[in-house]
Structure formats: C-alpha cells, structure tokens
Amino acid sequence: MNDIDVINLRCPSGLPRQTVSFNNLLVNVYPTGKKVFYARYFDGKKQHKVRLGVWGIDVKTIAHAYQLRQSWIDDSFKSKSKSPAVPEAPVEVIQLEPEENFSPKTFSDCYHLWLNIFATQVNAKTLKTTQYRFEKFVLPYLGNYSLNDISIPKVAPVFKVLGNRPDLQRRLVAQFNQVMNYAVCLTQLYINPCLNLGKVLAVRKQPVTNLPSIHYSQIDELIHTFLSSTIINRVTKLLFIFSMLSLLRPGENVKIQWKNVDFKNNVISIEAEDMKKKRPFRLPIGNLMRRVLNVMKDYAYGIDPKYVFFSFKTNESKTEHMSTETVNKALNRINYKGILCSHGIRAIGRTWLRDNKFPFDVSEMMLAHKVGSDTVNAYMRSDLLSERLEAQNKWADYIESMDKEQEIQKIISENYIDNVIPLFNVV
Question: Which class would CATH give 3-76?
Fold first, then answer.
C-alpha cells in the first residue's frame, strides 16, 4: 500500500464504510471520501487501536502514519519498563525524497512530467489527442498556476465552457485529476483538492448513439447497388466483400499483411499492434474469402506489397495500405450516408448470427470482441477457430443467396474488366 493507493481508495456503494488493513494500520473509508487512519499494537496478548487522524489533514503520507504510530507507542510506554509486543516482523519504511528535477511548482511543470509517464501507457494517437486537448483547453488558463493555488473554484470555470461537449469534459476532468494525483505522489501536495470536480460540474455521459446500419434482410439491395456501381472500382468492391465476410473493424481489414495469410491452414494471424484492442487475432479463411484473397494476390503480382489491400498510389504500393475510410466514402457516394457506415457492416453480421442461433461466444469472437472476464479467459484457451470458420461459411452462403444478380461472382471472376475507373484511382 502506498500513497496513491490510499488516494484511490473508495467506499463501495451501499456500505456505510469500508475498512482496509495493512501492516498494523487501519483505514476507514467513508462514502464522502473521508479516510480516517488508526494504528494497532499489541501489549502482550491484548490488542489496542488508536486513532491517528484524517488523511490529508492529520495524516499526510503513509510514512507519516507510521511515524505517528511509533510516537504514540513511545509516549504511551515511556513510563513502563516493557515495550509493546508486535507479533509480526517490523516493517522498514523508507521515504524517498524526490530529486530536484522532479519538484514541479506549477501545473504546467507537473503536467509535462505526468505526460512522460502517460506516453508509456497509450498509443501515439491517444497521446497526440491528449496533448492537443490540454494545450487548447487547460494549459493556457491553468498552466502558470502554482500547484498549491489550484482549487475547485479556480478550476471549475475552465471546464464549464465544455458543458456542451460532455464526453470531452468528462475525459479532461479525469486526466486533469491524474495530473493532480501525480503531484501528490511527488509530495508537492498533501491531497488533491479537485477530486470532486466532476460532481461540481455535474458531468454526464451523452446518450449512446449507435452507428448507422441496416437489417440483414436488406443486403440484397446493398450488394446490388455497391457492386454494380459505375463510380466504385473493383478493388474497393473486393474490400467491401471482404469486410462483410470478416466482420472486423475497417482499420483492421486494411492492415492485414500478406506475411500473416496462411492459405494452407485457412487462417490469417493478425498481429496485436494491428488490432484495436491490441490482442493478436486469428481470422479463419472461408471459401468465399479465399476467392477474394486470390484476386488480390493477382493484383499483388510483381509488386510484392506489404498489405493485402495495399495503396494503389504508385509511390506507396509496397509499404502503405488503403485508407480506413475507403468503404465509408464509397457508401456515401452511392447515397448510403446516414443509412450505413463501414463499421455498421459488423452489426449486420452480428444480428444475423444471433437470429440464426449461433453461440454467443462464437458470434462475439467473430467480431474480435473479448468474451468474459480476465479470470474466465485465463482458463478458456480456445479461440473457437473451427466454429468461427463454419459460421463464416454459412454467413457467406447467406450473402450469396441475397445476391440475386450474381454481382459477387462477376467481381471475383477472372474475366472481370474494371473499365469504369482506372485502377490507380481508388475510391
């Protein structure tokens, strides 16, 4: 247990208090956030409990709590010849003094130190977004404030202007408090005075709005409109078909690499860095998906690109993939804007799987969703590859049955000629 652990202690909802015990210290945590420290010691076989005080007021740090405990014991037994018996080995408490370069005085100083740690925990895109938000909404107003001068009345107006953007406001408040908690860890503050900032602002989540999608019974019109379009080229149509079969996210489809495609074992082993949740994923190769990949393999002949759906810009073919927005833009061009987006294709497939009684875990794994808790996944080592392959083939059969004009067969036919749009002008 360290100082930051104490700061993060919360009383579970519905309980009048929660008691946490560690190394002869007790902490009563109340729903209001108040934390009261107690020390315990033993006189022979008898146990004693002494109130040390409130965290942040009487007790500044864990090390301070141990000092108070020892002072109380020394004073209580000064007149006695014996010392209290402690049944467990003494705990050596080492209080580390921060180095000079870790002594920020202003919020801006502390923010930049915190950012160095935050950068090791998130990807580059999240880091860039966080930096932009702080530099636009927080640092111009609070950056030069001394840490000891920061309080809710001074901070609240900065965040209230984001009231019409509650999601952004909630995230910024949470990250602002992370910086302030870091200042507590560096012993620049005894306690974060802005822990209840969110309650003052009454930050609320926006109602969840699902991405636009259609029912699987309507895909006959979708397939015909998309695949017969004269303003969408063949490669984009192949990516669309692949997306319907894989049910992966748009960014995951375009990042599939040839080196990970195993035709022999009918599987694509996608690396963790190319998945949204940063977990490796095995995608089964069904019959129709194999035919789509074979067409893309013909396109790749003589180019040796890194990605299956590689960029057709002449200077990027070997190293870059198609845009994650390729299918989205194509859907917009055929008047499906607001009706269906590329991510909504996943909802079409998931609904069909549910209505056709496929097992929940198979259906969720097809969308690369995590199924169950960490404990469940520690024991469930199968990724249900064979079951997902069967489900994909049945889903593909349904898609082809809805393709009344045989548009899919035309697209993957060797005799197909993309004479509408030049190959290098990909949507």
Answer: alpha beta
* Whether the predicted pLDDT of 43 surpasses 80: no
pTM: 0.64
Mean pLDDT of 287-314: 89
Domain locations along the chain: 3-76, 100-201, 216-412
Q: Do domains 3-76 and 100-201 have the same CATH topology?
A: no
| pLDDT (tens digit per residue) in 335-384 | 999 999 999 999 999 999 999 999 999 999 999 999 888 888 889 889 99
The string over 309-318, giving b where at least 16 C-beta atoms fall within 10 Å of a residue's C-beta and e elsewhere, is bbbbeeeebe
Where is pLDDT greater, at 87 or 398?
Answer: 398
Please count the other Cβ atoms lying within 10 Å of the Cβ belonging to residue 195. 15
CATH class of 100-201: mainly alpha
296 and 400 in contact (C-beta within 8 Å)? Answer: no
Please tell me which of 15-24, 58-67, 387-396 the model is most confident about, judged by mean pLDDT.
387-396
Q: Which two tokens stand for residue 308?
A: 């299956």
Say if strands 25-29 and 281-284 run parallel, antiparallel, or are unpaired: unpaired
pLDDT tens across 244-287, in order? 999 999 999 999 999 999 999 999 999 999 999 889 999 999 99
From 303, 308, 304, select the one nearest 285 (Cα to Cα). 308
pLDDT > 70? residue 424: no
Hey, what CATH class is 216-412 in?
mainly alpha
Sheet of 281-284, strand order: 261-262, 267-270, 281-284
Higher pLDDT among residues 88 and 6, named by residue: 6
